[in-house]
Amino acid sequence: MAKEASYKDKKVITIGIVRELTGLSERQIRYYEERKLIFPERTSGGSRKYSFADIELLMEIAEKIEDGVQTYEIRQEMKKKNADATKLRNKMIQGQLNAQFGTRKR
């Protein structure tokens, strides 16, 4: 059975609603997309669709920009967080395998 995405991760919100919820302009939102900080889905007609998780991320990005952090630095921080999460997930999987099969990675 496929795991269903959380409501926070479903890309169903239009850019206009995102603009209203965040207070950001459409130009700012598109800029963050151009800078590879946010990744909306596209409809067949080309409209952007965002999730609640995207909105939270946009708010974090806007706050950092306001504090003077450059988009490059934000992107590097995001890459590091993703890499750390991947390492942790791999460690957890290895632990589960060790527990299940009584083996240890050497």
In round numbers, the mean pLDDT is: 90
Largest sheet: 3 strands, antiparallel
Query: Can you count the helices?
Result: 4
The CATH architecture of the largest domain can be named as Orthogonal Bundle
Order of strands in the sheet with most strands: 1-3-2
The CATH topology of the largest domain corresponds to Multidrug-efflux Transporter Regulator, Chain: A, Domain 2
Strand portion, in percent?
5-15%
The CATH class assignment of the largest domain is Mainly Alpha
Uncertain spans: none
Give the % helix.
55-70%
Shape summary:
extended
Domain module count: 2
Radius of gyration: 18 Å
Ends apart, CA distance between termini: 33 Å
> Structural class per helix/strand content?
mainly alpha
Order of helices and strands: EHHEEHH
**Total DSSP E strands:** 3
